[in-house]
Amino acid sequence: MKIAFLGPHASFTQLAATQLFPDGELLPQANILDCFNAVDTGEAEKAVVPLENSIEGTVSMTLDYLYKTPSIKIEAEGVMPIAHHLMIHPENNIEDIDKIYSHPQALAQSFHFLDTTYKETARQDFSSTAAAAKYVSENKDLKIAAVANQFAANLYGLKIVNRNIQDFEQNHTRFIVISKNQTKYENDHLEVLGEKSGMLINLPEDHPGGLHQVLSVFAWRKMNLSKIESRTLKTGLGNYFFFINVAGKWKNILHGNALLELQSINAEVDFLGNYKEFLLES
Amino acid sequence: MKIAFLGPHASFTQLAATQLFPDGELLPQANILDCFNAVDTGEAEKAVVPLENSIEGTVSMTLDYLYKTPSIKIEAEGVMPIAHHLMIHPENNIEDIDKIYSHPQALAQSFHFLDTTYKETARQDFSSTAAAAKYVSENKDLKIAAVANQFAANLYGLKIVNRNIQDFEQNHTRFIVISKNQTKYENDHLEVLGEKSGMLINLPEDHPGGLHQVLSVFAWRKMNLSKIESRTLKTGLGNYFFFINVAGKWKNILHGNALLELQSINAEVDFLGNYKEFLLES
């Protein structure tokens, strides 16, 4: 099965895709739009893209393309703890390193560690953590290290000298599996954290309390929202749509009625699916 | 006055900063954390960082650092239409170009134009639109073009061959001015689009309808929300804070009471400021 993902090779998204689709043929894409296009044209059956808190890609684009492409739905979500490691060429010594390469956000997320342990070592921005790791592997003679993930260390044969150097233990990135056919995604090897529904809600006009009215539909039914994000429509400033996650299985008459009531107040609802949330390793 | 901004030179954020602070001494920073640190340590008096829909930086980091750094508040917001232009070295001809360089998201945002007008021309990812423009200016002999903004074209002396090649006319990026002293930001040269308040709200526990209860406080007072975004706390999965924008001037007893009521239901509120929204040019 062909699975598009936001590249490059050894990106966090590939790390997610390999766990979600251990037997898939993974096709790296340059950006999030290309992932959606690959699914839309049938070039790939599914795609793995970041939904939240990624250092790769602008995840607001994922929401915008979900809105723009109603035929594409969500099959599953993966949550990965972000773990950054400091790695060098195996024939080098960490004492000799005079520059650390990585994506600027990965350097920022490891700020505290780098600023205490390698205060005097210069840092160099790179387009991705994976590209930085590749560059270190190809340039033994430069005295450089990279901040990247375990997968990149394995792929490029680098030696990890400091593990888990990120400032926050509990920083997570969320990925979603998107497809057009929305088959039921199952995976017996990954831990299931829960179940949720995703939907896009478009309010017909921007009026005070409109979002509150939408949320009332969920609130009295005790349907818990686990994510909400407003996005400006491309039709102009001041018009919005919302991405909402409702926790739990979507199964009974309350859920169906909630959608009917939303439509009765002229909200447009694109139900993206009821799907499982899996814990991924980093 | 020293103004930190998310670089590199000729980034969209610099384009915003030059309009917001025409007389400021602009200090480019490698990432959003460095912008916050510059303000926190006093190295810069203010900083300009992206808040929404940026192709530079991960804007969720802006929300996280606002949460992590309660001393830093918001003074102003700038909204800039995203305009991408195709540009070449002035001594080259567009007919000879065989590769187009840019940030992957800028290439994605110009997908439709590039795919129709320059279908056969290869594309190459670069770490930023500004860096791509600089590379084109320094490599006359390579037959390359860049997708970047007007500011980069001016700075690096490039010739614009196609203007406004972005797929959506109405795509905007939002920037905020942050500082510790939160002086009243004024600018007579920029058009004022409106006024708004920003706040971070932390619900003490994750219970169904909790967000709905918070929004009720605003809804019956007819205070309109113009942005809402949930962010996972770094303490673990399932705990959230919310960034909320309330439209309009924050002035009367209704507003004060809204905050008091939020506190009375044990919500922690960090009021980030009441500030103007300015229209920027791209």
Structural features:
homodimer; 282 residues; alpha/beta; Alpha-Beta Plaits; D-Maltodextrin-Binding Protein, domain 2; 2 domains; nine-stranded mixed sheet; five-stranded mixed sheet; elongated; aromatic amino acid biosynthesis (chains A, B); Bifunctional chorismate mutase/prephenate dehydratase (chains A, B); Chor_mutase/pphenate_deHydtase (chains A, B); EC 5.4.99.5 (chains A, B); lyase (chains A, B)
Could you characterize what this model shows?
The mean pLDDT of chain A is 89. The longest helix of chain A is centred in the C-terminal third of the chain and has 12 residues. Chain A has two domains: 170 residues, 2-Layer Sandwich (Alpha-Beta Plaits); 78 residues, D-Maltodextrin-Binding Protein, domain 2, CATH 3.40.190.10. In chain A, a hairpin with a 7-residue loop joins strand 12 and strand 13. Chain A has nine helices and 14 strands. Chain A has 282 residues and is α/β, with parallel strands linked by helices. In chain A, the strands form two sheets. In chain A, strands 2-1-3-10-4-14-11-13-12 form a nine-stranded mixed beta sheet, sandwiched between helices. A five-stranded mixed beta sheet of chain A has the order 7-6-8-5-9. Chain A is elongated. Chains A, B: Keywords: Amino-acid biosynthesis, Aromatic amino acid biosynthesis, Lyase, Phenylalanine biosynthesis. Chains A, B: Pathway: Amino-acid biosynthesis; L-phenylalanine biosynthesis; phenylpyruvate from prephenate: step 1/1; Metabolic intermediate biosynthesis; prephenate biosynthesis; prephenate from chorismate: step 1/1. Chains A, B: Catalyzes the Claisen rearrangement of chorismate to prephenate and the decarboxylation/dehydration of prephenate to phenylpyruvate.
